[in-house]
């Protein structure tokens, strides 16, 4: 029997990047793209390499194009790390695993290195598959922690819990990562949100702006750790913005949600160097009346639009500049 599981890209609606800094965020996953894992029993444990893992190239140009597409690292290190973390979790919690092995294949069409949580989607799909294969239940909060520990602990990638929480719950989630709760429980306070009053969201991205999340977070983490006042104030304000957005969501106040999304990006811009191409993408979206901010570390944006006329203008303006625009199919499992 082949076990097949899926996980989806994450869109950070508001509050990012404060999730790694005891802040608050709202995020959802959307099914326009997905990571897919197939796992089946075999005599030995085997990880099947995929496109991200190739080591033979036609020429140097092909190698460079592959690096520009996927970065320097493929998926093998992610899967190895996930196996190690899952196994150690089971040992620590006295969970007896059946004496059997598996082969795992994976693929993903999530645009890479655009702040859409493509790497954690692969990990989440894989962890789901191993849980089904070995008949192990892991609650969503712990599930998110385990996925994050692969990237933070095993691979040394600076990242926060937000992506993994949204992927674990597969519903829009309000997340509060206040320090006391994180230290006491090991995870934040999570509340699933009703999508009834969600505004019209769009997501746009340009693949030539890709960069890894570590590019942003490594520098920001260092500034946060030394207590830089400007960074601490920004983290506090992002938490406030998230609370205000949640209230606006309950009140169906689309105008306030629009303003808060814009403020989220403007605050980030005042704190972190942002490439010209990313700034232009945000400004183009705003030029037609839409709100705009990063979905993650850069290369993709999320925002709201008033109606179909505005969406048409948005799509036309961005498409003319080689920027793809989609309406996210929000997962609400």
Automatic annotation (TrEMBL):
TM region(s), chain numbering: none
Family matches, as InterPro entries: GHMP_kinase_C_sf (IPR036554), GHMP_kinase_N_dom (IPR006204), Glucuronokinase-like (IPR053034), Ribosomal_Su5_D2-typ_SF (IPR020568)
Keyword Transport belongs to the record: no
Domain GHMP kinase N-terminal as annotated: residue spans: 79-169
Superkingdom assignment: Bacteria
Keyword terms of this UniProt record: ATP-binding, Kinase, Nucleotide-binding, Transferase
Coiled-coil residue windows: none
Protein name: GHMP kinase
